[in-house]
Design a protein that fits this description.
about 70 residues; mainly alpha
């Protein structure tokens, strides 16, 4: 069983859905959308088999700076 979307693609499993993760199991990020920092966070998440998006991730400039 693949551990991430990337592993599934390599195995030719096109309908792979990662196991649902509780939000508390991985941290949200205050990185601005589209920045290198945000892309690095997304890259780390996918390589760890985590969902790309956390409900508390920063979505816009005016979402604030605090974590």
């Amino acid at each position: 069983m693949p551990q991430s979307v990337l592993d599934a693609i390599k195995l030719g499993i096109w309908d792979f859905e990662p196991e649902e993760q509780r939000n508390a199991e991985y941290k949200s990020t205050r990185a601005m959308p589209g920045t290198c920092e945000k892309l690095n966070v997304l890259s780390q998440r996918v390589s760890q088999g985590l969902p790309l998006w956390h409900p508390d991730d920063r979505r816009a400039y005016d979402d604030g700076d605090g974590e």
